[in-house]
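Saturday, quiet lab. Running sequence design on the structure tokens for the scaffold JK sent over.
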């Protein structure tokens, strides 16, 4: 048992040494890294998009009964008649997280809320706009838009370091794959060390 453990430890160390030796050969220049980063930034813009951001308030009448729908419609009528949204939210909203703040949900990205809520927000164009009564699995919402930030791309400078790291990792993976292919084609050297190298590489991918 001890001999088996010693052999396993030896093989692991040899595998790690192989990997370290291969990794040390990967020394891309800043220009090469930047070329990769810029080409990736242009080719995959969806990765770097910041979605539409909303700032909204809501009043929630919990439950989907006809009675609750009628209550929400009455609240909406009161708001259209001039009632203060924040005060009404504090008094009537069933969402404890936002009610105390006058229904304020803060800023959030499109897609964070339930589908019906998101779709209603898309119809509101200007700060102060009110939705109709919006039904979701939680109950009935009345939504007030406070602000909107359009979708935009993150600046290249914000993701440059991330893409440089990504480029180097990609080059290292390619170098390891080439080393494995070369060793297999030569079919020589320490078979145990080679297998340990392959196993260690697979473990790192997982």
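Result came back. Writing it out in full:
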């Amino acid at each position: 048992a001890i001999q088996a453990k010693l052999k396993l430890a030896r093989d692991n160390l040899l595998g790690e040494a192989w990997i370290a030796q291969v990794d040390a050969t990967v020394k891309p220049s800043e220009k090469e890294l930047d070329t990769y980063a810029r080409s990736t930034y242009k080719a995959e813009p969806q990765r770097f998009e910041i979605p539409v951001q909303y700032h909204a308030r809501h009043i929630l009448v919990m439950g989907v009964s006809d009675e609750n729908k009628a209550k929400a419609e009455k609240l909406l009528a009161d708001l259209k008649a001039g009632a203060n949204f924040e005060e009404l939210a504090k008094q009537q909203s069933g969402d404890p997280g936002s009610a105390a703040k006058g229904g304020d949900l803060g800023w959030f990205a499109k897609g964070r809320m339930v589908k019906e809520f998101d779709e209603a927000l898309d119809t509101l164009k200007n700060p102060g706009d009110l939705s109709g009564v919006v039904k979701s699995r939680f109950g009935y919402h009345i939504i007030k838009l406070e602000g909107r930030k359009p979708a935009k791309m993150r600046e290249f400078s914000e993701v440059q370091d991330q893409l440089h790291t990504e480029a180097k990792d990609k080059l290292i993976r390619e170098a390891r794959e080439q080393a494995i292919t070369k060793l297999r084609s030569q079919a020589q050297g320490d078979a145990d060390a080679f297998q340990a190298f392959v196993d260690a590489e697979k473990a790192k991918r997982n």
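Notes for JK: The chain is about 60% helix and 15% strand. The first helix runs from residue 2 to 24. Ask whether to fix the surface positions before the next round.
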